[in-house]
Amino acid sequence: MSSSHVVVVGAGIAGLAAARLLARGGARVTVLEGSPRIGGKLRVSEIGGLPVDEGAEAMLARRPEGLDLVRDLGRSDELRHPGTTSSAILSHGALRRLPAGQVMGVPSDLRALAASQVLSPAGLARVPLDLVLRETPRGADVSVADFIGARMGREVVDRLVEPLLGGVYAGRAEELSFEATLPAVAAAARTHRSLISAVRGMREAAPAAAGPVFATLPDGLGRLPLLVSDDIAEAGGTIRTSVMVRELRRRSEGWRLTLGPARAPETLDADAVVVAVPAAPASRLLAEDVPAAARELARIDYASMAIVTLAYRASAFPRLPRGSGYLVPSVEGREVKAVTFSSVKWPHLRDREPGVIAVRCSIGRYGEEHTLQRGDDELKAVAMTELAATCGVSELPVDSRVTRWGGGLPQYNVGHVDRVARIRAAVAKQPGLAVAGAAYDGLGIPACIASARAAATRVQEYLEELSDGSDGHGQGEQAQGARP
C-alpha cells in the first residue's frame, strides 16, 4: 500500500480527514482543492479583536468523531465548551425560552410547552391530541411537516421544529425528510403510536450526565482544517489549492484526473480516489463512469445563507444577553433566522475581550435567495435592526463582517436516505472509488468525519486487495483460490 497513490478531491473537513487517515495508513496522498484555501465551511477571522468563526462555530461533543480527531491531533487539552446552551425562540413578537423536554423542537413536556408561551392557545390545545390519535400511516419516508403536523398540529412545526432544523439546513419542513433530518425521533416514532411518548422515551433513555453538548477550539473551529493539513504534510501527503478537477475517468489500472484550464490541462493518475466535494461537482465528476450515482447527486439541492458578524461595545446592550442566542421562525416574517451571542456562549471569547460582545446573525432560507442578493451594507443593516428590536442595542458596532455561503447547505429532502443508499451502491461497483462529505449522512463536523472514515476504510481495503493480487472485486488468483 505504501506505493499506492490516492487522490482526494476536496479539502473540506471530510476530504482532509480522509486524506489524513490514508496518509497515516501509508498511502501516497494528494489532496486537490479548487478554491485558494482549505477548510470548506470552516473558516475563522478576527473581528473586534476576537477570533470568531465565519462558518460552523461548534461541533457536537456527544458524537465521538470530532473529539477523536482533535485527540488524535494531540489537542484535546485545548477544547472549549459553552458557558451556556440556554437559547430562546422569537414567537408572536417576543423572545421566549425554548420549552424544556423538547428534542429538536418536538415537545414531550406539555406543562413546559404551555409555560413557554411559544404556541397560541389554539396551537397548544392541539398538541395533546397526539396522545389519543390513531397511528399515523407512514411509508419509507415522509416530510417533517407532514408527520409532525399530523400528530401535533402545524404550529409545533412552524414555531418549534422548523426553526431548529433551519439552524442546520436552512430548509423547509414541507420538503425536509423526517428520516434523514430527525433520524432518532423517526426511529422512536416507529415504536410508539404517540410522538409525545416516543420523545419521552428518548429522554428517559438518555444518560443523566452526558457532558457538554458542544465543543470548539480557543482560536475558532476554523483552525481545525489547518491542524489536519499539518498532520497530512507530516505524514508525507500533499495538498494543492486552486486546482480544479475537470474530469475523473476510470482506466484499466486505477483512475485518471484531468486538472486545470482546458487550454492547458494536466493529468494525474491514481490507484484510488475519494470524491469529497458537494453534490453538484461530485455529480459532474462521476457522470461518465458512475452515471447512476451522478443522477442521484444531481437531485440534491442546496440552500444559500450569509452570516453577519457584529462586534459591539458591551455598553451597547442595556442588559447583557444571558443565553447563547435565539431562533426566528419563518412565520414571524423576519429576515434574520438565528442569532448567536458568541461572547456569551463561549466564555473564552469574553475573557479575551471583556468589553466586546460578538454577535453572529444568520440570514437566508431555502427558496429565499433573493434575500441575499443585496449588498453587504444592507445585510448588516438588517442584522443591526434585528438586534435593536429584540435586545435594545443602541449603538453602532465597532466592527462587522459579512460571510456569504452560496449553495452551502445540502437539503435532505424526502427520500434522501434511499437516495444516498443508491449513490453508495453505484459507487461501490467501482474499484478504488469512495465518496464523503456533508451531502450524505449529516451536515455536522462529526458526521462529515464519519463519512471520511468510511471512505478511507473502503479505499484502504481496496488497496490491500490490490497489493495482495486481487483486482478489487475479489477476482485475483488468490481470491479465486487458484493456488494448489
What is the gyration radius calculated from CA atoms? 24 Å
The helix/strand class is alpha/beta
Query: Helical region count?
Result: 17
- Give the percentage of residues in beta strands: 15-25%
Sheet having the most strands: 7 strands, mixed
Provide the spatial order of strands within the biggest beta sheet.
7-6-15-16-17-14-18
End-to-end separation in angstroms reads: 26 Å
Give the gist of this structure.
The protein is of the alpha/beta class and 484 residues long.
How would you sum up this structure, described in words?
The chain has 484 residues and is α/β, with parallel strands linked by helices. The chain is 35% helix and 20% strand. The chain has 17 helices and 19 strands. The strands form 5 sheets. Strands 7-6-15-16-17-14-18 form a 7-stranded mixed beta sheet, sandwiched between helices. A hairpin with a 6-residue loop joins strand 11 and strand 12. Helix 2 (64-72) packs across helix 17 (445-467) and helix 12 runs antiparallel to helix 16. The chain is globular, with a radius of gyration of 24 Å. Involved in coproporphyrin-dependent heme b biosynthesis. Catalyzes the oxidation of coproporphyrinogen III to coproporphyrin III.
